[in-house]
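Kindly inspect this one:
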Amino acid sequence: MSRESMKNTFILMLITLVAGLLLGLVYEITKEPIEKEKLKAKEEAYKAVFSEADSFEKMADVPDTTGDKIKGMGYDADIDEVMDVKDQTGNHIGYVLTVTDHEGYGGDIQFAMGVREDGTLNGISFLSIGETAGLGMKATEDSFKSQFAGKNVSCFSYTKSGASAQDEIDALSGATITTNAVTNGVNAGLYYVDSLK
């Protein structure tokens, strides 16, 4: 190896080392603020689906959230977190679930959903969604999300010809895969809450 090659190799190695150290430093600096933002977004989503809640307490003793029962029902979803919702007097009034459905067109779709003690779905609020702009991303609009709110059903289905029953959702035009993913995620959450009772 010539002297020039050794010099170039050393310079390249030094640049790589410095770049790696800088990336590590940036990661350490941004890790905590990113986690705080994620937590803040989650709390806002919880409030959006259960506005009358006074507190949200993470439930420790809950059934297996990735179990075969949910998969056996045909839902490719995980229940990531279960929160016990309490009112100002400390009484249990329902649950907030963080659900990740794995059937989205653009990948996983994660959302929070609030369910009252009587099984009524308060609504859903997206935490992470990367669907097609102008099509699947319309799932984040109130016109779609509001279809789930205030309904007490055991399972939702979607239709392309206009919802005519309490348990039906109007599918997003051109985004059936997204509609299916969100609907199945909600159904997995409803099934899970029912199993808690």
The radius of gyration is 22 Å. The mean pLDDT is 90. The CA atoms of residues 49 and 104 lie 21 Å apart.
